[in-house]
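Long-time lurker, first post. I've been practising inverse folding by hand and with some scripts of my own, and I keep getting stuck on stretches where the structure tokens seem ambiguous. Below is the full token string for one chain I'm working on. Before anyone asks, I'm not after the true native sequence, just a reasonable design that respects the backbone. If someone could post their per-position residues I'd love to compare against what I wrote down in my notebook.
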């Protein structure tokens, strides 16, 4: 169970509280049939048949929809049995019935993001941000759901709002926050603004992690900036410095080896580019059309047209709609 689900199960007392029939009335005792079904659910859960208990309780809830204790128990079993999509509407209903506080709203939002319900999370978080206007938590969480929806201008607005509300909260406004903010700017085509944020990220890393205790993250940041510049043909000297530093921090990364190789390619050192790109090919866990394309271009520069064509074909197998690679393939065919 994820930390978010565990928090919800624990905080809302959902996991281990059987609902006694005599305590489950809404405006009077439950009818005999309802009480019997509730006892049946108790027995099934005690015997370890949570799926059976959940089926009985969900049927009861359909007839007694505002019973808070019943809602709690159903949600707990749903989360324990990976029924997240079914649990979220009930969690939202529970927030309304119990006048939920900021942490409960945030926990539900995180669960929605974690379960890839991004558009629904966007709507929910916008409502939560209106409900708790002084909290940076909800614009911060919106940066995740909006980014996953690739709504980059909207995500940028929420990054800015988070920074304004969080003020000097360095636990929130840390290097991870500014790296994600920078990446959003870059994805939105705001390159100059992204560079300033990337530099701020690197400065925070140098200040907060002087001993390099988080090499994987540090390498990821350096590699991202280096590749961005290499692709744009800008700041190649600094890009090469960052790429080599990233490779030293994470020598097992195929993506970083590709960046180093592509930097050598842009500098015109094709033999060295080939060495690093072949290394990237060996290191990647899954075939990558970008690396295959880079290898094809490098081999073409080295006069190895037949081998270049093989790599372009492999790239197209993974990315068949890529017209640029198809053009490169045609150019190396006899």
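-- Answer (accepted) --
I ran through it position by position. Result:
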């Amino acid at each position: 169970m994820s930390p978010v689900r565990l928090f919800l199960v624990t905080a809302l007392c959902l996991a281990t509280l059987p609902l006694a029939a005599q305590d489950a009335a809404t405006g009077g005792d439950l009818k005999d049939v309802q009480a019997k079904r509730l006892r049946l659910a108790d027995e099934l859960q005690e015997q370890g048949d949570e799926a059976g208990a959940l089926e009985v309780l969900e049927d009861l809830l359909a007839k007694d929809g505002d019973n808070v204790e019943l809602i709690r128990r159903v949600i707990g079993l749903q989360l324990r049995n990976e029924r997240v999509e079914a649990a979220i509407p009930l969690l939202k209903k529970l927030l309304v019935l119990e006048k939920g506080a900021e942490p409960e709203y945030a926990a539900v939002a995180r669960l929605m993001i974690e379960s890839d319900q991004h558009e629904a999370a966007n709507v929910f978080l916008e409502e939560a941000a209106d409900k708790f206007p002084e909290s940076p938590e909800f614009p911060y969480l919106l940066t995740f759901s909006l980014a996953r929806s690739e709504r980059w201008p909207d995500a940028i607005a929420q990054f800015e709002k988070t920074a304004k509300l969080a003020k000097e909260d360095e636990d929130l406004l840390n290097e991870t926050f500014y790296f994600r903010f920078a990446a959003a700017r870059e994805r939105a085509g705001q390159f100059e603004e992204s560079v300033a944020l990337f530099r701020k990220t690197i400065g925070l890393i140098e200040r907060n992690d002087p001993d390099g205790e988080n090499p994987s993250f540090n390498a990821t940041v350096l590699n991202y900036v280096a590749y961005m510049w290499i692709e744009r043909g800008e700041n190649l000297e600094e890009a090469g410095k960052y790429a080599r530093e990233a490779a030293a921090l994470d020598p097992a990364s195929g993506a970083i080896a590709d960046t180093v190789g592509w930097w050598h390619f842009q500098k015109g050192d094709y033999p060295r580019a080939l060495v690093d790109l072949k290394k990237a090919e060996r290191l990647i866990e899954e075939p990558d059309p970008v690396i295959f394309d880079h290898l094809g271009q490098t081999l073409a520069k080295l006069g190895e047209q037949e081998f270049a064509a093989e790599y372009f074909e492999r790239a197209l197998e993974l990315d068949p709609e890529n017209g640029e690679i198809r053009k490169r393939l045609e150019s190396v065919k006899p």
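A couple of notes from the structure itself: Residues 156 and 289 are 29 Å apart (CA to CA). Residues 13-28 have pLDDT under 50 and may be disordered. Happy to go over any region you disagree with.
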